[in-house]
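Troubleshooting entry. The earlier prediction with pterin-6-yl-methyl-monophosphate gave an output that would not parse, so I re-checked the input for stray whitespace and re-submitted. Clean input:
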Amino acid sequence: MGVLNVTPDSFSDGGLYLDRDAAIAHGLTMAEEGAALIDVGGESSRPGAQPVEEPVELARVVPVIEALAPRVRVSVDTVKPAVAEAAVRAGATLINDVSAGLAGVAAALGVGWVAMHRQGTPQTMQRAPAYRDVVAEVRQFLDDRAHRARRLGVEEGWIDPGIGFGKTAGHNLSLLRHLGSLAALGFPLLVGTSRKGFLGRLSALPGQPPAPPSDRLEASLASAVWAVDQGASMVRVHDVAPTVQALRVAGPGRVRSVPPEEGVQAGEDR
Ligand code: PMM
């Protein structure tokens, strides 16, 4: 899943794709690079982000979805029912719902739905995230939401632990260590770690400041490979081409034996 934020204020690509043509071009590039799905969002969910008025969000996402949907599968990253509806009319077939509250909307529209876990809202979520047992609580929440969605008639229901949404670095790592227990719930698992802050802190050498979002590619790749190895069916990423390469080498079942006719010839790279 390639990230396409049509926003001025997203944490790593804010402002880059607010222009409609730039957004469409970037979506098509990610599709060519191997993204199966382009996730179009018009409201940032970064910690402290301010909510966006519905007409503004609609004006950002609908034209971009209309342009991309004939060429590549599109999801809409929104928590607003009216935006989800307009996006589906424009061609989106998956609602990426960080509030996990739109199952009824997805069922009524006959499209897929992602239930993401979060604690609090973007305005409050990083103030003091606290859990008794983060893995058990997130697991229970996702299990409940996904089963409820199935009862409502959602045929394609995804679950996502919501890395960085009301979670400390320790919470994020606990969830990543236990992705297998989320995958075991029996719903396809989506994981989004790309360029997130805990990777900047984890990958910094002792005494060094955390890496900024633009320097988190290698850490993002390591976490994407890990997530897929532990059972994720999809990863939500900004850097599609490098992620596709990494997963072609290291994804489960994807380490290929080189066909004989492509074997290493004398003088070639090993
Ligand atoms: N992360 C962001 C936004 N939307 N949706 C899902 N399902 N999972 C995520 O982890 C997730 C998300 C973070 O913001 P970004 O668009 O700036 O990466």
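This one parsed fine. The chain has ten helices and eight strands.
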